[in-house]
Hints:
Radius of gyration: 21 Å
Helix content: 25-40%
Number of helices: 5
Shape: elongated
Order of helices and strands: HHHEHEEHE
Strand order of the largest sheet: 2-3-1-4
Amino acid sequence: MAEGGDRTEQASPPRALDAIDRDILRILQSDGRASIRSVAERVHVSRANAYARINRLIDDGVIRGFSARIDHERAGQGASAYITLKIVQNSWRTVRERLEALPGAAHIALVSGDFDVLLLVHTPDNRTLRELVLTRLQAIPEVLSTRTLLVFEETDPDPVPDSGRPSRPSHTVPSPDAEQL
C-alpha cells in the first residue's frame, strides 16, 4: 500500500462545529454564491456573526474554496472515467504530483483495498482518454498497473440535501453595529 500523509499542515486540532456552522456549510454547499445576508437570515444570526463564522470556517480550513458544479458533457468533456492505479509502495506523493498535472484530472484519492489510487478524469473524447491512460499514466514509473472504468452517465446530486428542518435560532446577541456589514 502507498504511504499516507495529509497535504495540509494543521497547527491545531479541528474545532468542533455547532449546529449553526453545519447549517452554514449546508447552505454554501448547495449555493456557494449565497450572500452573507441570505445565509444570516436562513440560520437566524446577524450578518456580522455569519460573516465571522464563514471567515473562521475558511481560516480553519473547513471551507477549502468555492466552485461551480459543471456539466462536463456540455463543457466539451464528453468522456469520463474512473481509473484505478496500483503504485509502488511509498510513492504516493510523487504519483500525486504527476496526476495533478494531468489534463482533465478531476479527483485524486489515496484509498485502501485492491488498488492504491482512484482517479476521476474528464476528457473531450475516448481517443483522448485512451492517450491519457496509455501514454501519460502508464509512463509514470511508479504506476504498476491501471484499470479504466468508463462512466456512461453521471448524476451530480445536491451535495447536502436540505433536510427541510428549520435552522435553530442563535442565542448570541449581535453587537449594535453588526448589521452594518
